[in-house]
Here is the input.
Amino acid sequence: MDLLAAIAKNRFVIIGRVGMDLFPAPGLATEDATSFTADMGGSSANIAAGIVKLGGQAALVTRVSDDSIGRFCLNKLHHYGIQTTHVTPIGGQARSSLALYESRVQGHQSVIYRNGAADFQMTTADVEAVDYTQFGALITAGTVFAAEPSRTATFRAFDLARAAGLPIIFDVDYRPYSWPSPEVAAQVLSRAGALSDIIVGNDDEFGFMAGDKAKGLKMARDLARTSASIVIYKRGEHGAITFHGDQELHTGIYPVTALKPTGAGDSFMAGFLTGLAAGHTLKQAILRGSACAAIVVAKPGCAPAMPYPADLEDFLATHPGPTPTS
Here is the structure.
């Protein structure tokens, strides 16, 4: 498998959730708001939106509730140009996720409703219905592994994607509230990481999987030496360390005045992958991902804040950065 040639197809199948985001006007606390903007949310759906807005193609594989919220999610997926052939409504008590967050950094509050989440009801039949040969790579974020039957279904998708020659791209995306216990999360996320060709996570997430934050960097380095082709260890304001073969790349960030802390990771993934697909070097692709993250945290919303190519090129041409690295 030629990893870069596969990504260059710029056609991605993405496993994971789509939900509704609600956010009040910038600066307002939720309890003081009288109106909210509604848009699409969910890590996998956000990554898909970012990829499509930057010129790629993306298909989502998930379940949504068979109600008005699920239909809202489908409408938004269509709005952003994301393929929905394998987004399946489910009845009963399952519900699509709802995230309510604020466009402010000081005192920021986020409330996530994932009780009886519809996306966790994705089955092996759902992922077996996908023709993986249509795509260049599979992407998923760690939340899909937090419950059954979604966990087993996603590992089955890994097997099917691998059999079709697709690389697996894994955003660790550890959300403690979704998991039955930290021990289960560490075991399952580590298993997923060992099966992946590209792994993206922050210092807390790698540290969590390693059992100690101080050991997280070593775990990222070891994964790059033993199984993954590219491992990106994100360090927040200190930038990222990327491991690729014998390379160890240190990259900075593009400083901005942040309006909120959410959406950066999803936008980074979209900018990074479409950068690789366009033929940019690994370092250039990482910096394009960092620029996309900076753009999103400086605007309200997640999917609506994702940049188009002209937005990204203008930002890179006019904004100072990246910051020096140590």
Observations:
- The CA atoms of residues 174 and 205 lie 6 Å apart.
- The mean pLDDT is 96.
